Amino acid sequence: MPQGPLRPTSHTASPTASPTVPVTLTINGTPRALDIYPFVTLLDLLRGPLDLTGTKKGCDHGQCGACTVLIDGQRINSCLKLAVSLDGAEITTIEGLGTPDNMHPLQRAFVEHDAYQCGYCTPGQICSAAGLLSEGHAHSREEIRELMSGNLCRCGAYTNIADAIEDVMDHSREFGLDEDGSPGRGNGRGDGPGNGSDGRSGTRRTTHREAAE
What we know:
By secondary structure, the protein is of the alpha+beta class. 29% of the residues lie in helices and 12% in strands. It contains seven helices and five strands. The chain has helices spanning 42-47, 94-97, 105-112, 122-135, 141-147, 158-175, 208-212; strands at residues 21-27, 30-36, 68-71, 74-77, 90-92. The protein has a five-stranded mixed beta sheet. Strand 1 and strand 2 form a beta hairpin.
């Protein structure tokens, strides 16, 4: 059944002035039929009636990346997208990437590399990293840092975040997995600088996971 529209707040227009619009979204693999006011952002829809609060509201102006989700596989700041413009889209939030019992490779890597402190930016960082690896444009640590620059971490965990993403990227190349580290078509060995290297020396880094083994 269609879900009720997001309630207007003191900062939104009167609902009588803006009729709701029926929208169908696939969110974390589940189709949802929704009636949405046209001024509601995807971020407010997720955190409001859908109760998917893993996606965080930071600046609400597209400047910090805390609200990053995947829309049809691409990383997008959800605070900048009106939900009614996404009819038919597939949306993946941090809740859809993995669970505590079955974590996504990036989630595991963030834990192993201590790639968070307060954790507020972490869902957006992980969703952005998943989109980054799927894009396939990053082949070195420097490119990871550059292509993740839209996701801010006020705690300053950037070195550990880059370590985690680089670990998953190297692991994917070695074992022929999809770019985001999950089983799939993969690219196999030899794809990227230094045959699975860190893009600087041509010698593959030893990851924390391997050192523990």
